[in-house]
Structure formats: C-alpha cells, structure tokens
Amino acid sequence: MIYIIIIIWIIMLLIMGIVWMSQLVSKLVYGLFFFILNLGFLPTGYDIAKNIKPTGVYVIPFIGAIIEVPLHFFMTLWINIVDFICWLPSKIPLISSALKFIDKCPDLDLTTHGVDPLIEKFGLTGHRNFVTHSILNPYILIILVIGTVLYLLSKCISKKIKNIIIISLSLCLAVFSAHLFADCMPNAWLGGALIKAKIFGKSITFNAFISKLWLFVNGLAALRVSGFYASRLGEEELVHADNKNKDSRDVDSEKEKIEFEFKEDENIRTVVKLKKK
Hints:
Blueprint: H1 2-37, H2 64-85, H3 93-104, H4 117-121, H5 138-154, H6 159-183, E1 196-199, E2 202-205, H7 208-230, H8 235-276
Antiparallel strand pairs: 1-2
C-alpha cells in the first residue's frame, strides 16, 4: 500500500513538473516573441500597444492560433517601431499634440468625453464606427488632401519643405495604421471592440471576424499610403542619379563608336597601303 502511495505521489510530482515547465517555456517563448523580437522593450511615444492582448483573441475557428498569432507578432512589431519613432517627436509640444490627435482620431466616435462636431455632422458617433476606424476617417482624408496639395506646391518652392511635408504625412498615416492594428487585438471581441455601421438609419454590428478583417485591411491601407509618401523622399536625387548614369552610358557608347570608326578607318588605310606595295 505504501509503495502505491509513493508511486502515485511521484507521478503527481512529475505531472506538476511538466505543467510548470510548459508554463515556463510558454512564458519564455511569449517574452521572446512579444517583447524582444518584436522590439517591445524600446521606449515609446504614445503607448499605442497599451491594453492590447498581443497573442490576441482568435476569430478564425480551429486554426486561429496558427494564422493569427504570427499576424499579431508582425502587427505588434510595426506598432512598436512606429511608437519608437514617435518617442522623440512626442517630447516636442506642437508635434506631440498633432501626433497624439492622429493616434486618438479613430476614437472620436466616442461620446463619453463630448461629441466631436465633425464626427457628429457626418453621423459617425458610436464606438467603433466603421468610417472613423478606416482610411475614410474624415480627419485623415482632410490631412491627406491638404498634405498632398502642399506637397505638390512645395515641389516648385523648396526641396526641404517638400521633404518635411512628406515625412509629416508618412508619420501621420503610420501612427493611424498602428492604432488600427492595435484595435485588432482587444482583450475580448465584445461591445466596444466590434465595428458598427448605421445604414439607412439601421444600426448594424459586425461580428468578430468581420470587425477584425475591417480593422486589419484598413490598417494595411493606411500603411500602404504611408509607404507611398515615404518613397517620395529623395525622388529627385534618384531621378538625377538615373539621368547621370544614363548620360554616362551614352558617353561611353559614343566613345566606343568613335573608337570603332577610328579602328575601321585605320584598317582601311592599312589595306590600301598593302595594295600599293
């Protein structure tokens, strides 16, 4: 009887050890991916990733962990990079206020702190509204229109001003995309986490899958626009370098042509001299 009790006790210890080890490994893997490899240790400007669940709440049945966890890793990586870029600008009063507004503008559909006049005018109150949480957010559209006009005008005025406008637009869209990606990782897909729409006066609440898909696609769209403006940096230098290389190739080609004609003429003269002899 004593031997049986000892065996049971040893088995229980082994089970407890395995459980403890699995939890330890799980925490180590989590820390590795969602704190070190995704740059979560970097200083932040606005704590965009605060209150999110990095591993996420899965919305895809059965294979959610396989697809969504890697997706969350790359989203948190982008959020941490953007937040780190904002770290220094967040110390500059005017720039800090502007970027903070961009970070919070998807949540202007909230009425807990008062109604935003522009959002109310378009009937977009009610968290999370499908327009405010998209690339069609009225404030983002206004910034894009004004910024693009200023960018086109600055091309004729000053290269430095043009680059400042490009960096500002790219950073604004990067912050906005980071907010939408952070919204893809709530602690639970309930209530205010779900995307809502009002069509023909009827309120519709999207399910968890559609809500996450909407946020993710619009986050990618904002990221793409940010990348488009970032690619405009130094475009004149690239064009100038391409033209310079082209001119250099044309000169080399012309030199080769002249050398070929010279050699051909020399060969003809040599043949004529031999005939005369």
